[in-house]
Request: fold
Amino acid sequence: MTHTARRIGRSLALVLPVVLVLSGTLAVTMVPWADNSPSQILTASAEDVSVPAKPRAAHDVLRDKLLGELQQGQEPGAVLTHLQQEVDRRPSLAEHCVGIARALGRAAVDAYGPTKAQSFARPVCDTSYATGVASMG
Reply:
């Protein structure tokens, strides 16, 4: 084999796979029997996306709701009262009360500062609210 033939062979070995991939990709995207109407043009990941979202736990929903109340300007004392009412109404939330109260304490420090946030402390979930305030202050 001559030097020129080897060079051409190497060039083809590098270029040919690229050409084949590109031509194959173009051929697949433009097949004449495909329905190209906007309602039929979907990405592969959009097929069968009927898996329902994982439901959020009740304590997560309650924590987010109460933190939202704080962010909307309700006083921490009123929000703590809402926490106690929810725990009384649904005793299954009692095991999460401590974590929720601490989160409320930390959020109150962000909103009011440590001294004023501490003034709203109530005996809800033992001293968890105060612990949340103290961890931020």
Notes: The longest helix spans residues 3-29. The helical segments are 3-29, 58-71, 76-89, 94-112, 114-119, 128-136. The CA atoms of residues 71 and 111 lie 8 Å apart.
